[in-house]
Amino acid sequence: MSVNTLLRGLPKVDRLISSIKECVELDNSSYSKLYEIVNEVIAQYRKDILDKKIESFEVLDIQNEVIARLEKKDRYNLKRLINGTGTILHTNLGRAVYSQELISHLEKTLIGYSNLEFNLESGKRGSRYSHIESLIAKVVGTESALVVNNNAAAVLLCLNEFAKGQEVIISRGELVEVGGSFRIPDIMELSGAKLVEVGTTNRTHLEDYTKRITEDTAMLLKVHTSNFFISGFTKSIANKELVALAKEKNLITMEDLGSGVIIDFSKYGLRKEPTILEAVKSGIDLVTFSGDKLLGGPQCGVIVGKKELIDRLKKNQFLRAFRVCKMTLASLEFIFNQYLDEKLVLQKNPTLNRILEAPQEVLKRAEILKSKLEKIGVKSNIIATKAIIGGGSMPDATLDSYGVEIEEISALEIERGFLKLDIPIIGRVQNNRYIIDLKTIWESEYSEIVNSFKELKLNGIKN
Ligand SMILES: *Cc1c(COP(=O)(O)O)cnc(C)c1O
Fold first, then answer.
1. Mean pLDDT across the chain, nearest whole number?
2. From CA 323, how far away is CA 226, in angstroms rounded?
């Protein structure tokens, strides 16, 4: 056939799209991709015809090519993946994971309209913050609570409201930088408050604070050094002493706790972390923490404290910029509801569950995965590993864990291949061996991992 005849035989874009729509079911996201792919495929055929690479074709071939590309093309950029790193709160992989129960709750609550800012008792306009205020307050034993986008926003909001144009005293040992560029000195500057550093990196005494209090001082700030640990010749001031000093001088106290621990993990054999309850009990006026670290909830920042102070924050203009959406509020209400029952939350919250489970549970998962891999001819060893909590929490705490170490296949090959999958897998490479740490693997993911190895083999593995 001549080039011209072939070109004339190419289907029209609209025609092709409608015939494809008849044979495959498309969701919203693939509609826009379909148009793109149809144009792509027709352009490719046109080029091949002009280059004389094609001497004949069927319209059906073109249609199948489009369908194949459509199915292959990743429909979303943000997607689920399998975390085989053993880091439970992985900042790059989305920190705290959601449970099926939480998702079911969101589905029930958020498909359709909700009473987000509507008061069902008065039938009038309500406040979005009202839904969780008393629940959080009850769980952490405080008068009131407020939720913003993240903990960085929580700290910024409090500093701006209570210390703008005034001084905030903080120990040099607590001038931290937390992952994702949260730096206390920078946040302080942004808020309009003036940072006053006292003491030294390893030791700060009460008189260091006392000496620096002036007429311009508004607040004494404590920041939890979440992501590092100083040991040896150290001293910091107990909350009680700081609170007493602040009372005497009529200052506000605030503690940025970072991780948001509600349950005392030391009861279960982990290192003692200051809990929110303890901070509140010590008399600190305002305590802030993240929602998606050790709390095991959605990304947000929670501020708890005295009602009178929280009420002032509610009038700050920054709050409008930091306000959370209904998805966050619904998630957080669900999470805090579980915290009303310690046993329940330890069992049901995936983050807490994985932090506190016995190593034998991980070993069981490793054995199951190993045997499933064996069935498809992938050899592996079970090795003892150290998992970590991550998310800048408890930096010195490791958790005994187990991993499956893949034999015979080059780690580099697996690593590269696994990144390209529809459900990518992120593992660990150690001594040129690929390791999947079972600490962060769920039962539902075994078959996906097995299929990924099958696909890797199909695509040809170079050792
Ligand atoms: C993690 C952390 C933050 C930042 O919290 P985000 O929720 O990520 O904004 C601030 N302060 C401390 C002490 C932290 O550990």
1. 92
2. 25
| Residue 300 in contact with ligand 1 by CB distance below 6 A | no
Chain-centre distance for alpha carbon 274: 22
Q: Does any ligand 1 atom lie closer than 6 A to the CB of residue 290?
A: yes
The full length of the chain comes to 463
Whether 159 and 193 have beta carbons less than 8 Å apart is answered as yes
Backbone angles phi, psi at 437, to 5 degrees: -85, 125
Ligand 1 center from residue 213 Cα (angstroms): 27
Tens digits of per-residue pLDDT, 1-29? 789 999 999 999 999 998 888 888 777 66
Query: What is the CB neighbour count within 10 angstroms for residue 30?
Result: 15
Atom of ligand 1 nearest to the CA of 291: 7
What's the rounded Cα separation, in Å, for the pair 182 and 36?
A: 40
Q: What does the alpha-carbon distance between residue 347 and residue 357 come to, in Å, rounded to a whole number?
A: 9
Q: Which atom of ligand 1 is nearest to the CA of 290?
A: 7
Who contacts 189 (Cβ-Cβ below 8 Å, separation ≥6)? 195
Measured distance CA(133)–CA(305) in Å, rounded:
11
